[in-house]
């Protein structure tokens, strides 16, 4: 009998959907409490300039350690925060913790380093977002060039006119701009020039299995060539092996980020990566073959 239920049959009860909705609601309520109780933290992951082996920036990544539920990944809670109207609060906490970190830097470090913050679709299309983040950064006494904003292709293409206006205003305010997860979304390449971005981040899915002759390697090479022809720099995400570092460097990729260099870490550990004597990042030029 079950086999006979065709596509016109409406299923009034699907236990898996109900379970998903229950879990979603549970996480949504837990996230609301977590925000109120300041349970959200930020982990910072270094971005390395391949030419010199130096740390040039850190990506701020939201972390949620719940007393009841344990670690919950951003891939689970960011979409909930977006859908439930809580992404602003999550982001304000990430921005505030990033500004705290930058406040500990010297003048010299503020000139040379930045913190990269992920911006979600909802934020980019919120008419008040640009003025609010400008104000938050100004009130902390931090120059905007210490902050890079990472935006995905998908969120830009949601409403290209609104996105281009927001990107122009952010760029004029002095923020650095990067396109995140490049290659995985749909991006109209003709807009790339108008976007005021200075960097493309190649998605880790292309970096993971790349080698000099396979298709992922060719895609990476093509993205680097495209970026350079538009005057953009490239950061490779998800770099885990020395072979990837060598190949990316040979391909002309400027920067890399990944477990090979360092995992995302609490703010207290960041300083170690800024002290040249203690840097455990080996410059490409001095690495043995
Ligand atoms: P993303 O912005 O593309 O961040 C890079 C992700 O790759 C991070 O995952 C990072 O921990 C992970 N990663 C870095 N190096 C490696 C590596 O070598 N190997 C592997 N396997 N993974 C690596 P994470 O922290 O779980 O964040 C996932 C996504 O959640 C981020 O992807 C971003 O889209 C989103 N996200 C995180 N924090 C925020 C936030 O504050 N706001 C918004 N809107 N989204 C956020
Ligand atoms: Mg990112
Ligand atoms: Mg990414
Ligand atoms: Mg990603």
Automatic annotation (TrEMBL):
<feature type="domain" description="EAL">
    <location>
        <begin position="24"/>
        <end position="278"/>
    </location>
</feature>
<protein>
    <submittedName>
        <fullName>Diguanylate cyclase (GGDEF)-like protein/PAS domain S-box-containing protein</fullName>
    </submittedName>
</protein>
